[in-house]
Structures are given as C-alpha cells and as structure tokens.
Write a structure and sequence with these properties.
The chain is mostly helical. Helices cover 71% and strands 1% of the residues. The protein is built from 18 helices and two strands. The chain is elongated and about 120 Å long. The protein starts with a helix and ends in a 24-residue tail after the last strand.
Length: 381
C-alpha cells in the first residue's frame, strides 16, 4: 500500500499552526503572571517606604500566592511579620521555607537564621538556642554565636557563655577578654556565696590575668581578700587597680581609704588620691580624702578645694553639713533640702541607654551592656 503524502502536506502546516497558537497562549499567560507578581511586589515596597506594614504584608501575601516558589518574597514576608511582632506567622513562613527540598544551601541557612531570630524576638530562648546551634559552619555562624552569647548571659549560664566567648575570640570577632573576665567574676561571686573561698579566689585571679584593665576584677579581688581578713592584700589589689585602670579610681576611692586606715597607710593613700584629684576633681575622691582627714576642719578644706576648681551641689551639701547656722531649725531644713536636691546628681548613668541607678553596675540592667556605666556620677558627666 502506497503512503499518501497528501496528509503530510496538510499535517505539517496544521501542527505548526497549533504549536504557534499554544506558544502564544503560554507567552500571554507568562506575561500576565509576570505583570501581576512584580506589581504586587512593588506595591508592597511602596507601602514599606511609607511605613504601612499592614498594607505591605497584604501585598507580599498576594505576590507569594502568585509566585509561591520565590524565596525572596517569603523572606520579605517573614521579616515583616517579625518586625510587626507577629512571631507565629513569621515562624510559619520560615519553617515553610525550610521544608522545601529545592531550597539552596545558602537560602536554607538564611531561613534557619531568620527562624532563630523569630524565636529570639518571641522570647522562646530554648527554641532559639536549638535553631542557632544548627548554624555551625554556615555563613551565619558568627552572628549565631553572638546571639547564643546573649542568651547565655540572660539566663546567667556563665560556663556556656565563657565557651562561646572563647570561640568568638578564636575566630577574631573582636576581643572578648573583658567579657570573659566578667564571666569569671560572676562565677567567683556565686562561689563566694556558696562559701567556696578557694574557687572564688582562683576565678578572680584568672580574671585579672585575662583583663588587667578591667576594674571589676581588682575590686572583687580586694573585697574577697578583705572578707578573709587580708587587709594588706586587699589594699595592694586596689593599688594595682590604680596602676592598670586609673580611670576607675573613683569607684575604689572609698574602699581604698577604709583599707588605708586599717593597714596604717593613710599617708600613702592620701598622696595617691591627691595626685589623682589634681588631674580631675571627683566627688568620690574628695569624699575619700575627707574621710582620711585628721580633723573636721581639714575635711571641710578638701570640700572647699573641690568647689574652687569645680562647682558641685553634692560637695556643697557636704560642706554645708559642717556649718552651724544661727537657727537649728533652719540648719535642719537647709541640709535636708540640699540632700534632696543633690540626690539625683549622685546617681550613675548608663552611657548606652541612659538608665540611671544609685549604685554602679558592671552590666546595665536596662540594655544589658557591659562596662557602660562611667566611674563618675551624673553631676560630673
């Protein structure tokens, strides 16, 4: 049977025509989708620039529905949920990304990091810790270690905080010697409360070796030795503080004067404090000098010398407390008024967040920053 080539002549043009129509339909559909997705995406960006987060989220949800395979849209949507405080939805978005088998290694690490941030912002520290630990060896390892360090500090898990700080120190992410010294001081404080004097002493000696410029180590070492009836050792520790961290002498001026009286080294302590006072008058150093004075008149002379160089309501109230007014009632009222007026000026203020406190903190209770409190009081800043 001979093949009829007539069908071939009709079939080829027909197949070509059908293929052309199908390609045009696919091209039209692709153009419609490509117009819709960027339109929703750019509308979301416009809402973001106008700080309209709710409208931006709606636009990005529309864009994700139009192109569910686009990872960048999911990241943008998850970050928006987290910024708005909608942590449950942010977690669902990032967990959905992690469940995709076609996600690249880079985007998987990015989604894991974003999920850890969701848990961290939501206060779920245990889940955040588990998520951050999965980032070892990734491009986000350093950021994850810093976040883990913050978690361990908040939970006061000082041994694990030391481990993370040592890792960060080894990968050259800045110097963490001061942080490590603070952790050692915290461990020493816990050991001292438990009655383990030997462990506390060992931790503090390691702290001052790691970071001799950190005043806390020397002051804690001095207090520990003073509690153990080693007044000479306590005094020597404060002398080393002045040697390695002279800017922190105002914090140690009061204990230094007290230990000087106990050890009979008043003259040496007075000379040291007077030398420091020449460079920059300080309330705490002036009060320490007054406490080392041999007479009330000599103490009041120190107050006047301070006022001559630098006006101070705190020192003026101290000086006036030694004056005798004609009326005892007026004396009491004036003294009380000055005490109340100068009380806020005797506080310490965090340089990072501005949190004020009556006592000096090594770690700010407000922003959790280390060494953010200057050694001088509010009136002197």
């Amino acid at each position: 049977m001979d093949f009829d080539f007539t069908w071939l002549l009709w079939g080829l043009p027909l197949a070509f025509a059908l293929g052309w129509v199908a390609s045009r339909l696919d091209l039209r559909q692709w153009r419609i989708e490509s117009r819709q997705a960027p339109k929703a995406y750019f509308r979301g960006l416009n809402h973001l620039l106008n700080e309209q987060q709710d409208q931006a989220i709606d636009a990005f949800i529309e864009a994700v529905q139009g192109d569910p395979d686009t990872a960048e849209l999911h990241f943008a949507l998850g970050n928006l949920f987290r910024r708005r405080g909608d942590y449950d939805r942010a977690v669902r978005v990032h967990e959905h990304l992690l469940s995709r088998a076609d996600l690249s290694r880079k985007d998987r690490d990015r989604a894991q990091h974003a999920l850890a941030l969701d848990f961290l912002k939501a206060g779920l520290l245990d889940r955040a810790e588990a998520a951050l630990q999965k980032l070892d060896g990734s491009a986000f390892e350093s950021e994850a270690l810093l976040a883990l360090l913050g978690i361990y500090e908040r939970s006061r898990d000082w041994p694990r905080a030391k481990e993370i700080a040592q890792r960060l120190d080894s990968v050259e992410q800045g110097s963490f010697s001061a942080r490590l010294a603070h952790y050692l001081c915290e461990e020493a404080d816990l050991a001292q409360r438990a009655g383990d004097h030997g462990t506390a002493l060992a931790r503090l000696e390691e702290a001052v070796q790691r970071a001799p410029q950190l005043a806390r180590g020397w002051m804690s070492l001095s207090a520990l030795k003073a509690a153990g009836d080693d007044a000479q050792g306590a005094y020597e520790a404060l002398l080393k503080l002045h040697q390695h961290a002279p800017q922190a002498l105002p914090l140690a001026a009061g204990p230094l004067a007290q230990l000087a009286r106990q050890t009979g080294r008043e003259a040496e302590a007075t000379a040291l404090l007077q030398q420091a006072q020449v460079h920059a008058p300080c309330i705490d150093i002036t009060e320490a000098l007054a406490s080392l004075s041999t007479s009330p008149a000599q103490a009041r002379a120190h107050y006047l010398a301070h006022l001559e160089r630098e006006p101070s309501l705190v020192i003026a109230s101290r000086w006036l407390a030694g004056e005798t007014l004609s009326s005892p009632v007026a004396q009491e009222r004036v003294t009380l008024s000055l005490e109340q007026a100068s009380a806020p000026l005797r506080r310490y203020r965090c340089a990072a967040c501005g949190f004020e406190a009556r006592q000096h903190f090594w770690q700010c209770p407000g922003c959790q920053a280390w060494d953010s409190y200057p050694a001088r009081r509010v009136e002197e800043i």
